[in-house]
Amino acid sequence: MATLAADPDRRRRLLVELLARTGMRAGELGGIRDDAMYRVGDTWWLRIPIGKLHNDRNVPLHPLLVGLITDYQASRGPSTNGYLLEREDGQPFDRRTIHRYVAAVAKRAGIARVHPHQLRHTLATQCLNRGMSLEAIAALLGHRSPRMTLVYARISDTNVADQYFKATQAVEADTAEPDANHDVAGPPRRLLANGHCTRPLELDCRFQTICEGCGFYETNVEFVDILRRQRDDATTHADAARAQLYDQLVRVIDANPA
């Protein structure tokens, strides 16, 4: 997507962005009419013509797509045959040409063997992993049943673990009997720079030191107090990697306070 954002070819960028941000099929993209974009209230929509399952549908448009479509139409001029995207000969894009456009962008990005349908798969997976319902994803992709959506969208292992521990904690909280002689312990709280992480101790996190361990991360004496607190908090929770990282940052600041 970063490579695509710098693509000077307006038509190629619009074509690939439409696939990636709407999840439409390559065969549907070729049939998009030039007047398919319309507005209802504050939301822009795109009318996708009858596809593989013979059902027209309307999908919401990301603001970026609205800008790309408007810009492309202005630079292109009137459509030859009434299609939004046309080949040099004025004919609508076919699947092979669309595949070639996607492959060209992927090659420049250093990614091999990217098929247009993978963009549809990726959008469905990302939406599902970020909380979008199967019913909504099915409507977006033009599926008749959420069962079909499961072919494209798989919940990530991390998301499964997160939801599992949240569910089990809720169940245990509902069924636990408080001990009159002891306070009921709350969830573990790891100290962060501007808050706390309540991730269960049993659940590993690959991102817990990603910022502070990055080569572009920079800190100074202004933040040394919170770094010391984070180091002590990590030690308390027996997070050796975090404790070592924060201790190294504190030592560097102490050695170079300016």
Structure write-up:
The chain is mainly alpha-helical and 258 residues long. Among the domains are: 2-113, hpI Integrase, Chain A; 188-255, no CATH class. Helices cover 49% and strands 8% of the residues. The strands form two sheets. Strands 1-2-3 form a three-stranded antiparallel beta sheet, covered by helices on one side. The longest helix has 19 residues, at 157-175. The chain is elongated and about 70 Å long. It starts with a helix and ends with a helix.
Throw out a few tags for this protein.
11 helices, two-stranded antiparallel sheet, elongated, 49% helix, three-stranded antiparallel sheet, hpI Integrase, Chain A, 258 residues, mainly alpha
Known CATH architecture of the domain at 2-113: Orthogonal Bundle
CATH topology grouping of the domain at 2-113: hpI Integrase, Chain A
Total E-strand runs? 5
Rg over CA atoms: 25 Å
Our estimate of the beta-strand percent is: 5-15%
Oligomer classification: single chain
Instruction: Order the strands across the largest sheet as they lie in space.
Output: 1-2-3
> Average pLDDT value?
81
As a percent range, the share of helical residues equals 40-55%
Q: Which spans have pLDDT < 50 for at least 5 consecutive residues?
A: 180-184
Q: State the name of the first-level CATH class of the domain at 2-113.
A: Mainly Alpha
Structural class: mainly alpha
Largest pleated sheet: 3 strands, antiparallel
| Helix and strand sequence | HHHEEEHHHHHHEEHH
Question: CATH-wise, what's the superfamily of the domain at 2-113?
Answer: Intergrase catalytic core
From the spread of the alpha carbons, the general shape counts as elongated
The DSSP helix count reads: 11
* Distance linking N and C termini: 40 Å
